[in-house]
Design a protein that fits this description.
Layout lengths: L20 E4 L15 H6 L1 H7 L3 E4 L3 E2 L11 E5 L6 H13 L3 E6 L9 H8 L11 E2 L26 E3 L6 E3 L14 H17 L3 E4 L29 H4 L5 H12 L4 E5 L5 H8 L8 E3 L8 E2 L2 E5 L4 H14 L7 E2 L9 H4 L7 H13 L4 E5 L20 H10 L5 H11 L36 H6 L4 H14 L1 H5 L1 E5 L6 E8 L2 E8 L5 E4 L8 E5 L6 E3 L2 E4 L4 E7 L3
Helix pairs in contact: 5-7, 11-15
Bound molecules: 6-O-alpha-D-glucopyranosyl-D-fructose and calcium ion.
């Protein structure tokens, strides 16, 4: 690796331009007490895995007290730990262990909604004149309709988890809004008391020592609401519920709320926003440092390109040209101001190697190619637990194996329309549970995850795909990820170089350059099992190899680079001004 000269490392570059984040879904990471559920002591026990990988930040999916209707994204106490995961003391111990090793801790912040068992909602629900009534979205039935009958909901918004986004409350006769499950009522951010309560809670965590927040569906906190408090219907087929996004996301007060949060809460500590359905233009406004809103955003566009009209359960083959165009647009749009979060996998996405790669014949090659391509973009890369081991989709074969509320509710809703075989096919391709099977540590009975019965089945392929095997093999997915993390730390071109997309029309090769001063990197990735030739133009034949996923040298011939099955190469040259 090139040493980093001081003049190339301006002091005003924020640390996350050099950082890699690791996401843990605690429930599936490491169990220590045999109840089959991963826990905080389990993370503490495995901190060395993070250190070995070299990552800088740990993002923890929610560990707060929760009825676990949506695996912790339904919080009933923001200032306590769910007993399934441990105690506040366990969290403090983990925080200390991370800080000792120079890692930061980012907590998941779920404040678009709470659990219906949160005391705020319990109060809000108790009567129409309760002081907290207005903390949530309560509305009467549609005019002239009998409350509780189909179609009488205040608007035609559908829940992201199937069915209407409104639930009828018998006791007070009104409906409350829940964009996710009925146990996840949406908070009303229009109410300043709600915002103050959230900021107070965030400061409480920062005072405890955490380093920042990943903000769940943060662009849903501002809804399109009329001066009289009315909420609009959305486009939908007659008698059906529509996608609520157009009315419930990216509302007119989003930027105002985030700037207020920044003023009230942050003192150098940071926030990253999860923003489904956000455009590049929004992304830039949200992350332009001059605006003091968020430090980076997760986009969903590049992980929705293989979805048909039926969404995540309607999966089609990827057209690589769409992927290049999409990520290229985000790179260009946030080039001058703003910052991208880079990811393939998280707890909501099927495993990338099973999706855009080939998890059968070319698992190692395609997993490493995908890693190289992603990590060479401009932005902060995220690694989701197991991705660094080349873990694959679950390949479940019966409905009983599924646990995810979104998957189960969707299957219920579609049962009349689709055969069991069709349901299973759609779930196998699209279910969030694909990412939620336990981390495969070794080849023993439950993959080293638990001594008990895991809450969700361990993937049987742990007999060959596991951390112990990956660690032992110098050419493994794991060791490639280690090299990529080191490259991000050391190479200013990887951190800050300008991005330029090449070969936009090539259906099989992903190609781009990164340029900083007179240093240029060429990144090539083949999305094919067949040999490919990339027409890269003159001047690369003497370039040096920075990183690749084959051990033997790369073949360059004049203006062309030959690529083997799922091969990725990164070349470096000096360009004269
Ligand atoms: O398509 C969607 C909305 O456009 C959904 O996929 C949704 O945006 C996404 O799943 C949001 O995810 C986050 O919030 C959910 C939770 O279930 C997920 O696990 C979390 O990552 C509700 O809190
Ligand atoms: Ca446990």
């Amino acid at each position: 690796m090139n040493p980093v000269p001081d003049e190339l490392e301006p002091a005003d570059e924020p640390w996350w331009t050099r950082a890699v984040v690791y996401q843990i879904y605690p429930r599936s990471f490491q169990d220590t007490n045999g109840d089959g559920i991963g826990d905080l002591p389990g993370i503490l026990q495995r901190v060395d895995h993070l250190v070995e990988l070299g990552v800088d930040v740990l993002w923890l999916s929610p560990i707060y007290r929760s009825p676990q209707d949506d695996n912790g994204y339904d919080i009933s106490d923001y200032e306590d730990i769910d007993p399934a995961f441990g105690t506040l003391e366990d969290l403090d111990r983990l925080l200390e262990a991370l800080h000792e090793r120079g890692l930061k801790l980012v907590m998941d912040l779920v404040v678009n909604h709470t659990s219906d068992e949160h005391p705020w909602f319990v109060e809000s629900q108790s009567s129409t004149d309760n002081p907290k009534r207005d903390w949530y979205w309560w509305r009467p039935a549609r005019e002239g309709m009998e409350p509780g009958t189909p179609g009488a909901e205040p608007t035609n918004w559908g829940s992201f988890f199937s069915g209407p986004a409104w639930d009828h409350d018998e006791a007070t006769g009104e409906y409350y809004l829940h964009l996710f499950s009925r146990k996840q009522p949406d908070l009303n951010w229009e109410n300043p008391e709600v915002r103050r309560a959230v900021y107070r809670m965030m400061r409480w965590w920062l005072d405890r020592g955490v380093d920042g927040f990943r903000m769940d569906v943060i662009n849903l906190i501002s809804k399109t609401v009329g001066p009289d408090g009315s909420l609009p219907d959305v486009p939908a087929e007659d008698g059906r519920y529509g996608q609520p996004g157009v009315a419930a996301a990216n509302g007119p007060r989003l930027h105002e709320f985030l700037q207020e949060m920044h003023r009230e809460v942050f003192d150098g500590r940071r926030g990253v926003g999860e923003t489904p359905g956000t455009t590049v233009e929004h992304g830039r406004l949200l992350t332009d440092p001059a605006r003091h809103e968020l430090d980076m955003v997760f986009t969903f566009e590049h992980v929705s390109l293989d979805h048909g009209p039926g969404g995540r359960f309607d999966v089609h083959p990827l057209d690589l040209r769409d992927l290049k165009a999409t990520l290229g647009r985000w790179q260009a749009g946030l080039a001058e101001a703003g910052w991208n979060a880079l990811y393939w996998d998280n707890h909501d996405q099927p495993r990338i190697v099973s999706r855009y790669g080939d998890d059968v014949a070319y698992r190692r090659e395609s997993a490493t190619m995908l890693a190289i391509v992603l990590h060479l973009h401009r932005g902060t890369p995220y690694i989701y637990q197991g991705e660094e081991l080349g873990m694959t989709n679950a390949h479940f074969t019966s409905l009983e194996e599924y646990r995810d509320i979104e998957s189960l509710r969707w299957a219920d809703a579609e049962r009349d329309r689709l055969s069991e075989e069709q349901l299973l096919g759609c779930l196998a391709a699209g279910s969030r549970d694909n990412a939620r099977t336990p981390v495969q540590w070794d080849d023993t009975a439950q993959a080293g995850f638990t001594t008990g019965r895991p809450w969700i089945a361990v993937n049987p392929n742990h007999d060959t795909i596991n951390a112990a095997a990956e660690r032992a093999d110098p050419d493994s997915v794991f060791h490639l990820y280690r090299r990529l993390v080191a490259l991000r730390h050391e190479d200013p071109v990887v951190q800050r170089g300008d991005f330029h997309l090449l070969l936009p029309d090539d259906p099989h090769v992903y190609a781009f350059t990164r340029t900083l001063g007179d240093e240029q990197l060429l990144v090539l990735g083949s999305f094919s099992s067949d040999p490919q030739v990339a027409e890269v133009g003159p001047g690369w034949s003497d370039a040096s190899l920075v990183i690749g996923n084959y051990t033997s040298p790369v073949a360059t011939d004049g203006d062309r680079v030959a690529l083997r099955s799922w091969e990725a190469v990164v070349l470096r040259r000096t360009v004269s001004g």
